[in-house]
């Protein structure tokens, strides 16, 4: 009998139903600075040349956005209105057919895409992707993505560095996106 008594004491009592939170859900935070733009026209990047991409447009399709005052479509530069952490990405579509028809590719032939602060790609941290040109398709895409800390007034922009022995062409529709994450 003593064993039975002990085992009934060990039984957990059922928990009361969870209380509903009386706190209202936090409202979604409004993104104050964000953009998605596309290159208006193709840009030829000559051999052994570094070019800053300029002349963007806001896409006409639904879902595109340009919020805040930081982006200058003409210069392709995003200037931080406030200091903080920003997320950037770019899809750069590269046509390297001229290179393929010219000669054999060399191991050192590559294209770098960088998102740089104040055009100082080596002095400041930059987002960088290096792509070899061995792709057998006429056009390939280089995707660069990451976070940068900007001071108020600093700008970022995209650079394409062609180390190959022939020009490559950045296609119109290549895009640049960014948003303010927080301080």
Automatic annotation (TrEMBL):
Domain of life: Eukaryota
GO CC term, one of those recorded: extracellular space
All copies of domain C1q, residue ranges: 28-183
Gene3D superfamilies from the UniProt entry: 2.60.120.40
GO molecular function, one term: hormone activity
Location(s) in or outside the cell: Secreted
GO BP of this protein: negative regulation of gluconeogenesis; positive regulation of D-glucose import; positive regulation of insulin receptor signaling pathway
Keywords carried by this UniProt record: Disulfide bond, Glycoprotein, Hormone, Secreted, Signal
Record family assignment: Belongs to the adipolin/erythroferrone family.
Name of the protein: Adipolin
Organism: Sterrhoptilus dennistouni
Gene label: C1qtnf12
């Amino acid at each position: 009998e003593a064993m039975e008594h002990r085992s009934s004491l060990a039984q957990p009592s059922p928990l009361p139903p969870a209380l509903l939170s009386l706190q209202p859900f936090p409202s979604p935070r409004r993104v104050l600075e964000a953009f998605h733009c596309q290159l208006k026209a193709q840009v030829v990047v000559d051999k052994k040349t570094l070019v800053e991409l300029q002349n963007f447009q806001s896409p006409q399709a639904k879902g595109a956005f340009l919020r805040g005052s930081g982006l200058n479509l003409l210069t392709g530069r995003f200037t931080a209105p406030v200091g903080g952490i920003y997320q950037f990405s770019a899809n750069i579509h590269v046509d390297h057919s001229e290179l393929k028809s010219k000669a054999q590719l060399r191991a050192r032939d590559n294209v770098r895409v960088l998102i740089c602060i104040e055009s100082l790609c080596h002095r400041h941290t930059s987002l960088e992707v290096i792509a070899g040109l061995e792709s057998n398709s006429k056009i390939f895409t280089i995707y660069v993505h990451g976070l940068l800390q900007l001071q108020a007034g600093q700008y970022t922009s995209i650079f394409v560095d062609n180390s190959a022995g022939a020009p490559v062409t950045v296609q119109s529709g290549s895009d640049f996106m960014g948003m303010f994450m927080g301080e």
